[in-house]
Automatic annotation (TrEMBL):
GO molecular function: oxidoreductase activity
PANTHER family per the UniProt record, alphabetical: PYRUVATE DEHYDROGENASE E1 COMPONENT BETA SUBUNIT, PYRUVATE DEHYDROGENASE E1 COMPONENT SUBUNIT BETA
Recorded superkingdom: Bacteria
Species of provenance: Sphaerisporangium dianthi
Protein name from the UniProt record: Alpha-ketoacid dehydrogenase subunit beta
Keywords: Oxidoreductase, Thiamine pyrophosphate
Record-linked Pfam families: Transket_pyr (PF02779), Transketolase_C (PF02780)
Record-listed E.C. numbers: 1.2.4.-
Length: 324
């Protein structure tokens, strides 16, 4: 067992994957000499060389397009999008090429590419640096979309994503990069397309992922003093969804709250609420409620504490489920 931050755990996972397979490449802006703006790739270019850890031009579309060509030649590229808001110039390559080519070729062509995206707010950044674009990619057929929330999953899930023959969008919660936990490198990881119950409970099922998981765990601890019990589930995989675990939990608790940083309107929570309502209608004691960001552009850093769903907003949403 080793105590690692999330950033260091992903770094160690990348290192292990590169040691295991010399076809694994890392590409992105400042990933080499600088080691990434969050130092997630720190030391990898020094140890594996510039031909495997490649500092690219500032051209996200070019990064993904080049990775597609490399994947077609047998490589397993790991592309870093430096900040979430920078992924949109690459959207054409991701949506119209990366997601479609395996089906277009009737499965003859595989694109084992991982697109790493630091996501969400909470770090006092400027415009375009605090987005939550997961709904765009979960809506895109042909992509696996996963989100780690802690160092254990950061270490194991990045390796699982790299080994996967499907294209994977890999979200990393940037405000949790410095959170620490003990990581067992030799442990058998759970499949990376499965959700995980991280806190059992009896009264309300709380669904979260990425940066909001920690907030929801804090909410569960807070309401315990009031005699209420929250079951907190880390979705981990956003597409495909592990609906079996979700439905089993909601059928026991009778209530469900979905939390994410992205705007509530048309966010992933809407899909979850619809699915839970369809599958668990006769078990629900209250409507499925959502808590998230507002339908506005992400605000300047001085206002982000008012924008981001915090402990109080999660607690308020939990309280509202008992008003029905």
């Amino acid at each position: 067992m080793t105590t690692l931050t999330l950033a260091k755990a992903i770094n160690e996972g990348l290192r292990t994957a590169m040691e295991d397979d010399d076809k694994v490449l890392i590409m992105g802006e400042d990933v080499g000499k600088l080691g990434g703006v969050f130092r997630v790739t720190d030391g990898l270019q020094k140890d594996f060389g510039e031909s495997r850890v490649i500092d690219t031009p500032l051209a996200e579309s070019g990064i993904i397009g080049t990775a597609i060509g490399l994947a077609l030649r047998g490589y397993r590229p790991v592309c870093e999008i430096q900040f979430d808001g920078f992924v949109f110039p690459a959207a054409d390559q991701i949506i119209t090429q990366l997601a479609k080519m395996p089906l277009r070729s009737l499965g003859k062509l595989r694109l084992p590419i991982v697109v790493r995206i630091p996501c969400g707010g909470g770090i006092g950044a400027v415009e375009h640096h605090s987005e939550s674009p997961e709904a765009y990619f979960t809506h895109t057929g042909g992509l696996r979309v996963v989100a780690c929330s802690n160092p254990v999953d950061g270490y194991h899930m990045i390796q699982q994503a790299i080994r996967c023959d499907d294209p994977v969008i890999f979200f990393e919660p940037k405000r949790r990069y410095w959170d620490k936990a003990e990581v067992d490198r030799d442990a058998e990881p759970m499949p990376f397309d499965r959700a995980q119950t991280v806190r059992p409970g009896t009264d309300v099922t709380v669904l979260a992922y990425g940066p909001m998981l920690k907030t929801c765990l804090e909410a569960a601890a807070a309401v315990e003093e009031e005699g209420r019990s929250l079951e907190v589930i880390d979705l981990r995989s956003l597409n495909p969804l592990d609906t079996g675990l979700i439905y089993e939990s909601v059928r026991r608790t009778g209530r469900c709250v979905v939390a994410h940083e992205a705007p509530v309107f048309s966010g992933l929570g809407a899909e979850l609420a619809a699915r839970v309502t369809e599958a668990c209608f006769y078990n629900l004691e209250a409507p499925v409620l959502r808590v998230g960001g507002f339908s506005t552009p992400y605000p300047p850093s001085r206002l982000e504490d008012d924008y981001l769903p915090d402990l109080d907003r999660v607690l308020d949403t939990v309280d509202r489920t008992f008003a029905f």
